[in-house]
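TASK: fixed-backbone design
INPUT:
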């Protein structure tokens, strides 16, 4: 304890008007270590005096009582050290938290200064002009993209009605060509019935039917 309270700290600490948080924390840890060793010593002495009191017992009453008195004094010192350690531990934790907060605030101050330095080179009017230019260029790019993606109007100068009329003429030509290719059925070689009127009528019906069937086959072939 005399070393801690009378050492006065380092010369650098005196020159700065007080120890740094790191130096103070180091001293507090040294003190905790010293008091912990003193606790171990007192606990050992208490056990020794208690053993001596048991050894002397009532046969050597005076010696036994002296041992118990010393044990009581050691126990009192041990209790005081326990309280001192609790106080030092609380102080050390408070100092650690203060040091942490100080470092945090210092770093935040550095960051604020850096931001201020960066913003000092910025002109809000120039930023507004720049954003306006970016917006205009984006609009131009969108217009170019829309123009490229639209279907090219090649061939739109032709009249659609004229094209439809030409298409109908082509279809009519193909239909007429198909009709010219239709062949009439040949006249049957069998003799006509002797009954007048009836055989000629049947022949005409059969020929008409054959012509219709042949025509339908031609039209179906042309359509396919």
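OUTPUT:
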């Amino acid at each position: 304890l005399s070393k801690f309270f009378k050492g006065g700290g380092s010369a650098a600490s005196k020159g700065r008007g007080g120890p740094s948080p790191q130096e103070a924390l180091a001293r507090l840890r040294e003190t905790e270590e010293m008091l912990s060793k003193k606790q171990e010593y007192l606990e050992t002495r208490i056990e020794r005096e208690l053993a001596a009191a048991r050894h002397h017992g009532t046969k050597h009453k005076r010696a036994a009582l002296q041992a118990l008195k010393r044990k009581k004094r050691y126990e009192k010192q041990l209790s005081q050290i326990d309280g001192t350690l609790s106080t030092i531990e609380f102080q050390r934790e408070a100092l650690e938290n203060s040091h942490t907060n100080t470092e945090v605030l210092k770093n935040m101050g550095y960051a604020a200064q850096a931001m201020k330095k960066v913003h000092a080179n910025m002109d809000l009017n120039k930023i507004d002009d720049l954003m306006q230019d970016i917006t205009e260029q984006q609009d131009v790019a969108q217009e170019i993209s829309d123009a490229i993606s639209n279907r090219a109007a090649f061939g739109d100068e032709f009249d659609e009605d004229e094209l439809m009329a030409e298409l109908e003429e082509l279809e009519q030509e193909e239909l007429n060509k198909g009709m010219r290719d239709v062949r009439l059925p040949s006249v049957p070689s069998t003799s006509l019935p002797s009954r007048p009127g009836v055989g000629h009528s049947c022949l005409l019906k059969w020929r008409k039917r054959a012509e219709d069937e042949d025509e339908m086959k031609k039209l179906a072939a042309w359509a396919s």
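COMMENT: Residues 111 and 117 are 10 Å apart (CA to CA).
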